[in-house]
Amino acid sequence: MKKGLFITFEGGEGAGKSIQVEILASHLHEQGYDVTVTREPGGTRIGEQIRTITHDPENVDLTPVTEAYLMAAARAQHVEQIIFPSLENGKIVVCDRYVYSSIAYQGYGRQLGGEKIQKLNDLAINGAIPDLVFFLDVPVETGQKRRRTAIKVKDRLDLQQKEFYARVHEGYRQLAKKYADLFVVVDGTQSIESVALKVWDVVKSRLDKAAKPDVQGEY
């Protein structure tokens, strides 16, 4: 079975993930690769319905535990309907957020515990581990400033206190250390072009390496 490449982007609010997903997908398309671009929570009909619940600013009574289960439920649907089929067809999957967002936001931000959220999501991801995780590292203050400038309508996550986002950011930094072989930390305060170039260099290197045949010497 041919297997594709699974790439995800992570970071706090205002990190610039969405634009980097678009730029990378555009580069890949230009190089002739078949790409699936998706996001979490969402990506599927059911996932988008769950996103409406989790992001609705009127749902201030949504408890942290309920939020964690909803995110995992959306992810389970996403993995089954989008990620696995795309990878099995040899496509490159570029995803805006994945399980590490849940660990950072619910595990650290909501203080439910990173290990608990990881275990909660084990069934949801069903072994679908990314090949590359780009963590766009941006200070909380910078991210919030960008967010305020960019958005017109606030969602539920925009209503959190600064301490919440500080815990999320620390969660990502801990994840980057724990999964150093998987995470690529990029300074998200750089220009969009500079970040995109760094991302493309890493992805191109991975693709070039995968394209080389495994030649062994003959005796």
Automatic annotation (TrEMBL):
On whether Kinase is a keyword of this UniProt record, the answer is: yes
Query: What GO MF annotations does this protein's record show?
Result: ATP binding; dTMP kinase activity
CDD domains noted in UniProt? TMPK (cd01672)
In which family does this protein belong, per the annotation? Belongs to the thymidylate kinase family.
What is this protein called in UniProt? Thymidylate kinase
Instruction: Please list the reactions this protein catalyses.
Output: dTMP + ATP = dTDP + ADP
Residues of the Thymidylate kinase-like domain: 9-196
Which keywords fit this entry according to its UniProt record? ATP-binding, Kinase, Nucleotide biosynthesis, Nucleotide-binding, Transferase
Q: Please give the InterPro entries that the UniProt record associates with this protein.
A: P-loop_NTPase (IPR027417), Thymidylate_kin-like_dom (IPR039430), Thymidylate_kin_CS (IPR018095), Thymidylate_kinase (IPR018094)
> Which residues are involved in binding ATP?
G11, G12, E13, G14, A15, G16, K17, S18
Report the EC number(s), separated by commas if there are several: 2.7.4.9
Q: Which organism is it from?
A: Candidatus Gottesmanbacteria bacterium GW2011_GWA1_43_11
- Provide the top EC class: transferase
* A GO-annotated cellular component: cytosol
Q: Which domain of life is it from?
A: Bacteria
Annotated GO biological processes are: dTDP biosynthetic process; dTTP biosynthetic process; dUDP biosynthetic process
Report the function annotation for this chain: Phosphorylation of dTMP to form dTDP in both de novo and salvage pathways of dTTP synthesis.
